[in-house]
Amino acid sequence: MPEDIERATIRTIAWRLLPLVFLLYLLSLVDRVNLGFAALTMNKDLGLTPYTYSLGVAAFFIGYIPCEVPSNLILERIGARRWIGRIAITWGIAASAMALVEGERSFLLVRFLLGVAEAGLFPGMLLYLTYWFPRAYRARVNAALVLAIPASGALGAPVATSLLELNGIFGLAGWKWLFLLEGIPTVLFGFVVLRLLTDRPANATWLAPRNRAWLEATMARERASVEALHTQLSVWRGLVDPRVLLLCFTYFAFGTISYSMGYFLPLIVKGWGVSNFAVGWIVAVPSLVGIFAMITGSYFADRVEDKRPMLSALLIVCAIGWIGMGLYATSAWALLAVTLVEIGIGIARPMFWTVPPLFLSGAAMAGAIALISVFANFGGIIGPVVIGWIKTTTNSFSGGLYYVACCAFVSAIAIVLLRTVPRAARVPRMDR
What we know:
CATH superfamily: MFS general substrate transporter like domains
Distance between the termini: 39 Å
Number of helices: 16
Structural class: mainly alpha
CATH architecture: Up-down Bundle
Number of strands: 0
Largest sheet: none
Shape: globular
Order of helices and strands: HHHHHHHHHHHHHHHH
């Protein structure tokens, strides 16, 4: 009977909440990285060099980063429904406003405002899922969220390049149509979130009483076990905990990998001499492989107790993929290397986010998740800027791609140094 209640409860919650958070994150990624496809024609229209374009990429994160930790703390205090709904509406407006840019200054300004508007969405949803799903389901649930990353490539890439074909209709450039038509749905979906998202299990009137009681008891028991083993940390102590700082360092590589891929892969593929329309479909292929890898990998990840060796191996796979991209950047052979990166990062990302709840809870976890996510955004600044600067000075993408490979390799070493369980709490080995 308890197992039946557990299965029924998790199934009901998953069908109610996961489509909402998945679609929300998918829209955010589409609105964030459609810049890479708009750049196929926008850069020429606005007179942007690869380096200036990379500064626009960075401007988003300059607005995003300072607001991320405060955003998660506000969510913890006032609830996910109102705060995430507000984020969606304001970022949708800012995303559509990209159609109004006319030069370098307005380009940088609107990108900055988009970052401020969207700040806190991803860590907020990660935190939100920890309110609803027990530890045994975390890798699969996180996969349902971050599945939006490869999905945004598989779906967003061909849609974006198709919208570029609207060039000239009503006197608007194709890239302006791209920003307009991909920003408006986000605003509308923000109101859906305000209507349908439920803050906490205690507010879930759509759950049967016995299912709600089981869920609340289970989550309370898991929080108590974490706090008994690690003690409940304050927000500040959670932010400066050495384990959190090591996770920040590691997640820097995740951001470097993802954003460098999202913002520059379309330009790399365009260099092979294919049409703008074909770029979207080519970029979609490795993303589809990444989706399959994430789904299957997360299922097995929940059955692995110590995830550090596997995470390290996956980051090494990513490093090898980026080296391959650097070696073959000017030919279609690079697509195989891109696929390797998508497999590695696709399995690693949901697995990574199962680690913080192993030693954090409450407000400390809210702040720590946001801080870790901030470092991905630092990667989103530095990685594209390095690639853009090297491409401008050397007329080649390869040096920047090797830089991303180095970040992945160093993080692979760092993750094996992490200890989530105090030495004193480990079960001693019995002599045979």
